[in-house]
Specification:
By secondary structure, the chain is mostly beta strands. The protein has one domain (about 15-90): Immunoglobulins (Immunoglobulin-like, Sandwich), CATH 2.60.40. It is built from no helices and 9 strands. The strands form 2 sheets. Strands 1, 2, 3, 4 and 7 form a 5-stranded antiparallel β-sheet that branches. A 4-stranded antiparallel β-sheet has the order 6-5-8-9, with no helix packed on it. Strand 5 and strand 6 (about 55) form a beta hairpin. It is globular.
Length: about 100
């Protein structure tokens, strides 16, 4: 698991390292490190350098899925008072 604890709040929220597929799909899991429990309802925001952010909410198992354009994005997770990130991720160009 990747400790994305470069944020604010109580510091209980963590996230797995995002998995980035060649087609621009980014997935991951958000969890509470204190009780090792996955967190439903967390907000995951991917901000590209230009344009509008892409937003997802974690499901009942704490999983999220984002479809992103190629390029660098800043991934930030919000859960109650916690803010985790930003973490810069690179989404590769899709093959032709």
């Amino acid at each position: 698991m990747y400790d994305m604890n470069a944020g604010t709040g109580r510091g209980f929220t963590r996230a797995s390292a995002p998995q980035i597929a060649i087609d621009g799909v980014v997935t991951g899991v958000v969890f509470n490190m204190t009780v090792d429990d996955r967190l439903p309802g967390a907000t995951v925001v991917a901000q590209p350098p230009h344009g509008e952010p892409v937003v997802a909410t974690t499901d009942a198992s704490g999983h999220y899925r984002l479809e992103l354009a190629p390029g660098v994005h800043e991934l930030t997770i919000y859960y109650n008072e916690d803010r985790v990130g930003p973490l810069k991720i690179m989404v590769p160009q899709r093959p032709e």
